[in-house]
Amino acid sequence: xxxxxxxxxxxxxxxxxxxxxxxxxxxxxxxxxxxxxxxxxxxxxxxxxxxxxxxxxxxxxxxxxxxxxxxxxxxxxxxxxxxxxxxxxxxxxxxxxxxxxxxxxxxxxxxxxxxxxxxxxxxxxxxxxxxxxxxxxxxxxxxxxxxxxxxxxxxxxxxxxxxxxxxxxxxxxxxxxxxxxxxxxxxxxxxxxxxxxxxxxxxxxxxxxxxxxxxxxxxxxxxxxxxxxxxxxxxxxxxxxxxxxxxxxxxxxxxxxxxxxxxxxxxxxxxxxxxxxxxxxxxxxxxxxxxxxxxxxxxxxxxxxxxxxxxxxxxxxxxxxxxxxxxxxxxxxxxxxxxxxxxxxxxxxxxxxxxxxxxxxxxxxxxxxxxxxxxxxxxxxxxxxxxxxxxxxxxxxxxxxxxxxxxxxxxxxxxxxxxxxxxxxxxxxxxxxxxxxxxxxxxxxxxxxxxxxx
Amino acid sequence: xxxxxxxxxxxxxxxxxxxxxxxxxxxxxxxxxxxxxxxxxxxxxxxxxxxxxxxxxxxxxxxxxxxxxxxxxxxxxxxxxxxxxxx
Lengths: 454, 87
Prior knowledge:
The complex is a heterodimer.
Chain A (H helix, E strand, L loop, with lengths): L21 H4 L3 H7 L14 E7 L1 E2 L11 E2 L4 H19 L9 E8 L7 H14 L7 E6 L7 H9 L4 E7 L3 H6 L6 H13 L4 E8 L6 H14 L3 E6 L7 H7 L9 H17 L4 E3 L2 E3 L17 E5 L4 E4 L4 E5 L3 H9 L5 E6 L2 H15 L1 E3 L5 H13 L3 E3 L3 E4 L1 H5 L1 H7 L3 H16 L13
Parallel strand pairs in A: 1-4, 1-11, 2-3, 4-5, 5-6, 6-7, 7-8
Antiparallel strand pairs in A: 8-10, 9-10, 12-13, 13-14, 15-17, 16-17
Chain B lengths: L1 H16 L21 H14 L12 H4 L2 H16 L1
Helix pairs in contact in B: 1-2, 1-4
């Protein structure tokens, strides 16, 4: 075999496949009824779990690297009440249809934005709407994200725990105070420790944290320092995300204006990720997903959120992304709070863009999950279809096969995103390039084709 | 002219996308399908081609895998724009 492949530039992992692009997949109001008609039929019997995601778009400050949809809480206080009402109505609109009848929800995950910023009564109102309208009798995990300000309220955490919330996660990002300020992360490191203490005092048990690597002004020494500090805190799971400086964004403008001393490159990114892998392994945290390390006493469980990409996922709230293996539906809600509320108040699903996923694309999505999960059974993928490409990856020591499994090697763990990209179809590669090109042309954020941090 | 464009593509991809100037790129090497270049790399390449060959902006509909798959196909596309400008 002569197919020598030597990855040089580390790609971000892919968590969504196929992509959704506003320019290519826009859903108009007059076609949405037909698109959503799948809701009239019961969900087909499937082994896939049914998870729920709730997107809360409010933040008390806006980090300048974050591409996700959010609005400043201070200037949108008056919209919180109408938003909560709209979100409850959205849940009811889904529950009224046949699709979810008898479907057991396995996991509820709150993201944003900063969900913990919502008042306790609002969070409980939304939880009650879920509990009342969907079958949550077998929910294993209810997870809510917060930042180092919003997680300091022990009484709030206790109240949420009493109402079924089982897990929380905190965006720690970095322990470098100067970098935190440059990235717009307002809480300082002391606040991180205060939050961890509150989580412990509330006897919350399961908690995770996010950290960043590949930031400007970041180096391997800082990564090692961050890993050591996090290991001291003993979270159950750690997510490590690479920061990307996208065209048009505020961060790109800061870089262009010389606000940072060092800019990451392909070599420094590789070195930082290597330091993460070695650091967490050194602290006894095995790598459990392409970007996750688990406390050995708390390995990923069956309906934990680390299985979300392998499950049916229905999302509520602005920018929420739904992916349903069972019907091949792949869509997202408006990345605009006003439009989101308006559509729901008019009895419409607040859809912005979406597509129908073919069986062929579902198989491609499943092969994307091999690098993410590190290993999958051959029976979880269409092995014969992808054998040729798997063999090329194996020939280059990025993947391996056994009698019944396919996985990525130690070398492959560095290149999980590249391996995923290698399995993208020609059509998807073209769609992604078109989406990026148009986003840059229209001065939009690449992620949701909106104005986040642009 | 075409050879000049092909050389520019090869040079940019090896130096600025795969960071390895010894990597062997032929005129018909499939840049995407072999994993040499990803969507963001294509965008960087497009931007570079626009600048070097003074193309105001590629048309959105021309951003396809077929047009950007090999140095040869990219050169054909650039030439199409150069010809349009002359006309």
